Amino acid sequence: MSPARADYAAHQDAARTDPVAPAIPFQKVLVANRGEIAVRVCRTLRQMGIPSVAVYSEADRGAPHVRAGDESVAIGPAPAAQSYLDPSAILDAARRTGAGAIHPGYGFLSENAAFAATCRDAGVVFIGPSPESMARLGDKTAARRTAASLGIPLVPGAEEVASADRAVAEAERVGFPVMLKASGGGGGRGMRVVSSASEMKSAFEAARREAKSAFGGDRLLLEKYVHPARHVEVQILADGRRAQALGERECSLQRRHQKLIEESPSAAVASKTRAAMEDAAVRLAEAAEYAGVMTAEFLMGEDGSFHFLEVNTRLQVEHPVTEMRSGLDLVSAQILIAAGRSLGSATPAPPEPRGHAIEARLCAEDAYHGFLPQTGTILMLAWHEEDGVRIDSGIAQGQTLSPDYDSLLAKVVAHGKDREEARTKLVRALRGTALLGVVTNQSFLIDLLEDASFRRAETFTHTVESREWLPPATVPEPALAALAAYVSEPRSAGGAEEDTDRYSPWQRLGAWGRS
């Protein structure tokens, strides 16, 4: 347990047992998600003594998150639209199991205001903001209007573009290149950079298709593409009246507009800029009477100026970075606020954030060949263990990865007294992880953390995709040791190894990669 976590534990326990605080009105929570975030939410529910219900598609029948819940319910076939994105299937599972609340995690239905309203109408607590707050901030178009009304600087653009022709007209007004973005979601989906009018039609249609598939809606907005820029975000906790900023995270290292490395604090943010960003984020939350956790995202230029991008009205993938520095359990805070606790009752004032934390997203993808998603069977899995290292994982040895969902496998997070200690600790954790049978971005993450630009904290949103990255010439020693142990174990013919991805680097080792 980190020092910040230890200091905060007693305060958190007091909040949960506060005799004057409202009782938790639900006795069971359904987790409407999958993978590592479902496992993580179930863990906190167990610590709070609240029974949990996991849901799963047929493709996820044997996945670890199914076992993480106290109960589990099948909700449909593999396509997300017929399972995790199906409001009726989720609510039916809650009804059948007697769950009085739903935690949406991130992605899927987590930022769907209509689903939050349906839950309320059905008498089920949605662990997140009200539908009204979500509509005001979770929808990118509405969030821009709210920010503008508060005098928060915006990236120039258009709040909604209904056709490729309109998008071209708006792009010519603000100047190419521009960014098309899905109005109703985040996580890098439904986003395209467009450099000229001739590229617009294909990019517009691709962004609409991706937005519809990921979020159930295909509305797009357009913004000027800021370059070079850093991606900086502020974590907010709010109770519907007051909001509290919990520091910033820098998430500039991205591929295809999806984050790879996140850290807190940002080495590039001056104290005056930090205070201004936190003030803007707090004003957004309070103006929308927001209750729960949210993240306000900004683009910061080389001169330190910043522009509002969007609000994510949910738990962020990178929330462990903030937790490692503050000692807070943000999922517990979400649940307590959804139960009616005030900000002071749900989260007594935490100590000042300590040290530095960095998170790496371990994904099933070939980072050296276009970040192509990978599938296969995990033949062996062993995590590095060290004080100050946290693993949030949604995978297990023997599991076969489906092509139907996001490639994120786990988050590896390290905390140190300063940035360099956290960096070196995270590199050790990644080098010491053995994951056999599936191609991952493990080596690429190490390359990013060891790169001179990251050591100097000189990274921008274009850094990853502006350079050519070459695969390593050697295999890390811990991986070789794990491989040797694996191939020495007797197995019957026709086992899981027959399903190994044929593009895996282990296959290239010849006899070393086969039993």
Detail the topology: elements first, then pairings.
Elements: H1 3-16, E1 29-31, H2 35-48, E2 52-57, H3 64-68, E3 71-76, H4 87-97, E4 101-103, H5 113-121, E5 125-126, H6 131-137, H7 140-149, E6 157-161, H8 164-174, E7 178-182, E8 192-194, H9 197-215, E9 220-224, E10 230-239, E11 243-255, E12 258-264, H10 271-287, E13 291-300, E14 306-312, H11 319-326, H12 330-338, H13 343-346, E15 356-363, E16 365-366, E17 372-373, E18 376-377, E19 380-382, E20 389-393, E21 400-401, E22 408-416, H14 419-431, E23 434-436, H15 442-450, H16 452-455, H17 477-488
Parallel strand pairs: 1-2, 1-4, 2-3, 4-5
Antiparallel strand pairs: 6-9, 7-8, 7-9, 10-11, 10-13, 11-12, 12-15, 13-14, 15-22, 16-17, 18-21, 19-23, 20-22
Pfam family, one: Biotin_carb_N
GO molecular function, one term: ligase activity
Organism: Eiseniibacteriota bacterium
